Amino acid sequence: MSKRIAFISTYEHPTRASVEKMLRKAFPDHDMDVIHVKDVIRQHREWVIPNLTCMVREYWRQLLVRRIHWRAAYFRTTFILKHLRTAMSSVLSPRDYAFSFQIQSLFDTSVPGIPHFIYTDHTHLSNLKSRYFDRRDLRPKAWVDLEREIYHRAARVFKRSTDVMQDLAHFYGLPPEHAECVYAGSNVSLPEGFQQNNAGYSNKNILFVGSDWERKGGPVLISAFELARRIHSDATLTIIGASPEVSVQGCTVVGPLPLQEISDHYARASVFCVPTQLEPFGIVFLEAMMHRLPVVSTRIGALPDMIVDNVNGALVEPNDVSGLSAVLIRLLDSPSLCRDLGDNGFRRAEELYNWDGVGRRLRHSILSLTASGGAA
After folding, report:
1. What's the domain count of the chain?
2. Which of 22, 170, 254, 354 sits at 20 to 30 Å (Cα–Cα) from 29?
C-alpha cells in the first residue's frame, strides 16, 4: 500500500501552514505532496470562457452592485466544482496515494479509488443561522447541491466544532457517523519565557484582534466599552488587525501586525473581547486562551465549544451592548477573576485545542478507516 498523502490546499491562510505541519508530524511514516487547487484550475485555460459565462449567469446581480469581486466569483461557480473533480483524476492516481486530505469544503477534489478526507470549519449553509449574514450572498442552489456531494463522497468529514457537525446533518443530510469533531490549534506559539505584562490583570486593558471590523462586532465593542468607562474611567481598549476610524477616549488603534508581534499585545492585556456576529471558527480566541486571557465573545458558531461561561470567559448574544458592557465591568472589577478564568482557558486550550492533539485524532481515524476498507 502506498505511503504517500495528497495534501490538497484550497486557500492561503496561516491555518493552512499549521495544518500541513500538523499532518506531516502526525504521519511521519508517509511522504506528502502538496497540491494547490487554484494551480490546477489555472492550468486549464480552456475553462476560461465557459467558466466566465457561468460566472456571469450565476453571479451577475452581485457583480453588478459589486457585492463580489469577479476574481472571487470566478472560483465559486458550478462549472469549476464539476470540472475540477474530473480534472483531479489526471492529477492523482489511486496507485500512488494512501489517501487525500483536503482543507475546507469549497471544492471537490475527491478521486475514485483514493480515500478522501476533508478538514473544514464551516459549511455554506451554516451562514443561514446568523442574522448578520445577508441572504443575497447565498450561492446558487446548484452550487449547494454540489457542495452536498462533497461531504457525502468523503470517507470522513473532520470538523473543528460541534455546531458544524450538527449543520452537516441538518442542512446536508450527512449521517453522524460520517463526521467527526477533532478541533483545531493555535497559529501563534508562545514566545520562550513568555510572561504577562498586565500588572497582575489590573491594568484594565481590553484587547480586540480581528481584521473584519464590522463582522467581528467592533462597533458593538466600542459602544460597550464607552459604557464600561463610566464605571472604570481608566480602562483602555487596544485594536489589532482592523483600522477603524474611531474617536473614543482610551482607545488605541494599532492596525495590522505580523503574527509574531501580537504576543506582546496579548501579554499587556487583562481581557480579550471580540463580540463577533458571524464566525466559522475563530483561531484568535484560542490564541487568547493560550496567552491566559479571559475571553469574552458571543454565543454563536464554535464559540460555545471554546468558551464556558464563568469557567474561562463569558458569552453574550450578538449585538447585546448592555450585556457586553456588564461582563466587561465585572471582569475589570476583579483582577483575580481575570487570572482564574485565564488559567482555566489555558488548560482548556492545552487539553482540546492543540495541533498535536488534532493530529493524534486524525491519525487514529484515518488509519482505522483505511485499514478496514471503510474509506474506499
Report:
1. 2
2. 354
